[in-house]
Model the fold of this input.
Amino acid sequence: MPLDAELGKKMLQLITSRYDDRHWRKRIEKTLSLPQSGVTDPVQLQIFMYLKLGLKAYKSRRADPDSWIIGGYATKEVINRAKFQPQLVGVSLKQEDVAFLGTDPGEDVTEAWWEEMLVQWFDVPEEETPAEETEDSQPTSLEPSSPINSKAS
Done:
């Protein structure tokens, strides 16, 4: 189950308030590299995508991977632009929607919280399957391993 509104808000606060802290830079980069499917709230999704694209920097035209500009004036400018001109983030966004950006999420947001947030981001509820399907899938999983064993002999 992706992030609910409360976790999403804390995640966005973390990105927009602790970017100058070296301790959090790699975690913020990791968060920005996550797929947007982890954010369920439509307003927070727009903010996340704005930050993801706004903080994107291209190292070169070669095969170097993309990176994010975390820390310094450029990051502050992207965040302030979102905070004071919410229509740049989304046409329907208002000042109240982005007012929480740049405020620290609190002392309860630690490395352990961040790890839990990552788990929540990718947590997909398991669909219940009938017992018959489970029994049928077990023999098929054993069959592919038998040719490997016979080749090794």
User: Anything to note?
Assistant: The longest strand covers residues 56-57. Residues 19 and 70 are 6 Å apart (CA to CA). Strands lie at 56-57, 67-68.
